[in-house]
Amino acid sequence: MFFFFAGGLEQQATQILKKGVGRCIACGSRADLVEYEKVLKLFFVPVWRWPGKGPLMHCDNCKLFFPPPPEKEALEAALRCQFCAREVDPSFRFCPSCGYAL
After folding, report:
1. 67-83 pLDDT, tens per residue?
2. Which residue of 46, 69, 82, 89 shows the fewest CB atoms closer than 10 Å?
3. According to the 3-state scheme, what is the secondary structure of the chain?
């Protein structure tokens, strides 16, 4: 007995949150911040859909989904001591000013 299976898992953009926010990491064209869903297809017919975990960047040119770049505020907060709020080198394990464990 021979079975032929044609199907797969695909991501589809459901809603555009911000248009033209960044650049595609593959082709360099403009990318949008979108909400997405994952779709299971059997014989090219959608069978099951479920929402994605968080927003992703989506390129309309090459149809690539990729994670958004980290926000500047989150990056700056990561480089500061949580106890004394002084700037700290990312390679340090302890704050040189107050000794707090990072």
Report:
1. 988 766 555 556 778 88
2. 89
3. CCCCCCEEEEEEEEEEEEEEEEECCCCCCEEEEEEEEEEEEECCEEEEEEECCCCEEEECCCCCEECCCCCHHHHHHHCECCCCCCECCCCCCECCCCCCEC
